[in-house]
Amino acid sequence: MPAALRTENSSEGVRGQIKQLQDARARKIIVLDDDPTGVQTVHDIDVLTQWDKPLLQEAFRSSESLFYILTNTRGLDADTAERINREIARNVQEVAAEEGTNFTFVSRSDSMLRGYYPLETDVLAEEVARVNGRAYDGQLIIPAFFEAGRVTIGNTHYMVEGEQLISVHETEFAKDKVFGYEHGDLPSWVEEKTSGRIKASRCLTISLEEIRQGVDIVKAILLKAESNVPIIVNALSYADMDVLSLALLQAEDEGKAFIFRTAASFVKSYAGISDQAFLPKEQLIASGQEQHGGIVVVGSYVQKTTRQLEQLLTFPGIISLEIDVERVLTPDGYTEEIRRVIGEANRQLAEGNNVVVYSSRKLITVEGHEGNFKISQTVSSALVEIVQSLEVVPKFIIAKGGITSSDVATKGLGIRKARVLGQVAAGIPVWLTGEEAKFSGIPYIVFPGNVGGERALLETVEKIEA
């Protein structure tokens, strides 16, 4: 963080106060996560990969106030994303009514502003209004993710690189073929993403200066919200976020209703989740499988992932298994390539060698969103099939990239519900697979595509093997 931005207010005791208020409400905070990396700031909570009523009933009857539902919509087309959000909203409201429990929706997405906004928050708002007849007063836009250096100041969202602040619209993520955008200034981004339906001038803003004047000032702004107005939140630290969360709770107590479009840091603050040290080596290795190798599955194509992969391949003794993407895009080539990698992966894992399976780094694209989605899904299917076909229980599994880690979790490992243990490093969560999974009780490390320095993936494996 640049030195000029490091001054912050103290939040000592605020997080505990937030936790007490949330617990006293006996309501559920339900985070709809558009890829599995969103649990990268929390610990000791459940993440559901399905949303049928029996599973939701289990979650509502739990003593914990927070749970996640993995939608994976960032890896799907818009129509499917809408259907999933609508289905979840309807199921949640039915279960909530049966259980007599209130709830709040948080739509968690990318700290680099990719994803289906405003589609997802619009659908959730429509479904809630359909049942209870009331519109939300405001939708809070909070893309800050402090663990990865994503901060918002002056209504502009930035990526921190060393002593530099880089507006996200100047990064490779803004050029995403599906979710690209032109503005890092968030009111302008809202206008852009809503195709002019919501003008930048209509957005409310909560400045850093206002947050640091205290809870009362922030609450006063929140009380002005009506008609689901977008509210842009500036924040550089958890101290800032905790002031916002406390003000939100007070505004809600005065009758205001909000929905949230956020990155990962807000959830930790709003739910009153305490800090926890990074997980030790002992919690990163499956009990009884120490003699086997571990497997790293890499699908993400962003430059950061490619640099991290290059560093990982320098780890002594690691086995490199590259999938030729051009081959898997043809029916015969797909079958032959997958069979080759599966056979070698099983053999190496049984011999105790760590394996990294990755798609070739040449990015293949075509014209149009649908064609690029199809390529992405074919590559992901290949990675999933490899995991499905493992006969040797690996001592750990790392999946790199949001779409990859979601598909490996739900399709490759068959996870229905997992426990979030915590993080192996900043922004890198660890799940413990459930009894229903292909490999139960195994640590599953969900490594986001846009998180960590060049050595982060290597350092994770080094920590396990230390």
Give structural notes:
The chain is α/β, with parallel strands linked by helices and 466 residues long. It folds into 2 domains: 3-270, Rossmann fold; 281-465, Molybdenum Cofactor Biosythetic Enzyme, Chain A, CATH 3.40.980. Helix content is 38%, strand content 19%. It has 15 helices and 18 strands. A hairpin with a 2-residue loop joins strand 6 and strand 7. Helix 10 runs parallel beside helix 15.
Summary of the model, kept short:
This protein is α/β, with parallel strands linked by helices and 466 residues long. Helices cover 38% and strands 19% of the residues.
Name a few traits of the molecule.
Molybdenum Cofactor Biosythetic Enzyme, Chain A, Rossmann fold, 466 residues, alpha/beta, 3-stranded antiparallel beta sheet, 15-stranded mixed beta sheet
pLDDT averaged over residues? 93
- By CATH, the topology of the largest domain is Rossmann fold
Rg for CA atoms: 22 Å
The total of beta strands comes to 18
CATH superfamily of the largest domain: Putative sugar-binding, N-terminal domain
Uncertain spans: none
